[in-house]
Amino acid sequence: MMLALSVRQPWANLIFAPPRFAKTVEVRSWRTRHRGELLIHAAVSKVDRADCKRLGAADEPRGVIIGRVRLVKIERATTRRWRELRKRHLCAGPRPYEKENKKTYLWFFERPDLFGTPVPCLGQLGLFPVPDRVLSSERRTPQK
Fold first, then answer.
1. Do the beta carbons of residue 128 and residue 3 sit within 8 Å?
2. Is there a domain that residue 27 lies in?
3. Which pLDDT score, from 0 to 100, does residue 136 have?
């Protein structure tokens, strides 16, 4: 069994973009002790059309696991650190959650592996377990 994280589109697909454009930092208002492999689930929630247009993203698949990454570290984001790293999140605006006075955590991803075929799966809030049977070997073929 592996853990998955739901990410809205177009952000989910941008994690797997070519290195020059890849989104290597995810922002959350919470942290986890988990490190290592993590599945990326493209959330079903509404796609932000303005972000898609700004980033040149198409209407990407939703409600599916699209690949996996390695979660290597999580750190608390200060406003200064956010300014340094926001390009790696592909965000032009202020630090997320700042207005809500919530803590902001930066999740650092490495080794993105986009699946050749998206795997249908219901997402959940937080990290959620994905049974091995959902990720049968024929569905985990890396994209060429």
1. yes
2. yes
3. 76
Q: Mean pLDDT for each 10-residue chunk of the chain (144 residues)? A: 91 80 83 96 80 68 92 89 72 56 83 90 90 69 51
Lookup result for tokens 């994209």: 143
Nearest C-alpha neighbor of 81 from the set 108, 112, 110, 54: 108
Domain coverage including residue 34: 2-123
Is 4 in contact with 65 (CB distance < 8 Å)? yes
Cis status of the peptide bond prior to 10, with omega within 30 of 0: yes
The answer as to whether 128 is a domain residue is: no
pLDDT for position 144: 47
**pLDDT number for residue 83:** 76
* H runs (alpha helix) in 16-78: 49-55
Q: Does any domain span residue 144?
A: no
Instruction: Specify the number of domains making up the chain.
Output: 1
CATH number of domain containing 83:
2.30.130.30
Residue with tokens 């490495």: 110
Residue 25 resides in a domain: yes
